[in-house]
Amino acid sequence: MLATLPFLGYIVEGLTVTVGATLVGFAGALLIGATLSTLIVGSNTLPRYVASGYVTVFRALPELLFVFIVYYGLDIAMRALAARIGMAPLEISPFAAVTIALAMQFAAYCAEIFRDARTAIPGGLIEAGEAIGLSGRKVRTRIVLPLMFINATPALGNIFLVILKVSALASVIGLEEVTRRAKVVAGTTKEPFGAFAVAAICFLIVTALATALQHYVERRTNFGRSVA
């Protein structure tokens, strides 16, 4: 355990990459998921079927498998494109690959969350907005979207934590995040327990902070309880 202490800073520095990948992937999942949920509840048949198919497919794929598909698939596509236009070979970074994979896959879960959150909004509130003369756009932006995000807050908080944990899979494609650095230190010191214990503590700290933030947002939005 003591042999790991000199490498403590090296492991902790990987936390910036872990958190960065999580935030970018989560933001992308929110954006894509919100778009998908809009298509699913829309009146156009083809976009609705396409969005529903997207959700079904990406909820079924294992996260690690999809990280490999994105990383190697995009690498092949970018090299083929570079060769076609006569440029030097292009490579996709592990960070870009994992954030794209996280955003695309967890967008399927976010779409279901947003759809359920939209369904939970009382129809009377929407009718009240229309009755006082609000346009369709204002009803969506001032009533539907705020209430939808309030209803979705607990589930989205859980999705963020899942993405945080799944981001450790990026180590298999060489991303220098916490888990990858802990593995490097474990190989150097021959003390895997100490290195991975430090990585575990890093994840626990970020999870605790994210959970506290989620609870704060829930209290501020008065989600099913009185404001403290």
TrEMBL record:
Chain ranges of the ABC transmembrane type-1 domain: 15-214
InterPro entries: AA_ABC_transptr_permease_3TM, ABC_transp_permease_HisMQ, MetI-like, MetI-like_sf
Membrane topology field: Multi-pass membrane protein
Compartments where located: Cell inner membrane; Cell membrane
Keywords assigned by UniProt, alphabetized: Cell inner membrane, Cell membrane, Membrane, Transmembrane, Transmembrane helix, Transport
Superkingdom in the source lineage: Bacteria
SUPFAM superfamilies for this protein: MetI-like (SSF161098)
Segments crossing the lipid bilayer: 20-41, 53-72, 92-111, 143-173, 193-213
NCBIfam families referenced in this protein's UniProt entry, alphabetically: HEQRo_perm_3TM (TIGR01726)
Family to which this protein belongs: Belongs to the binding-protein-dependent transport system permease family. HisMQ subfamily.
The protein's name: ABC transporter permease subunit
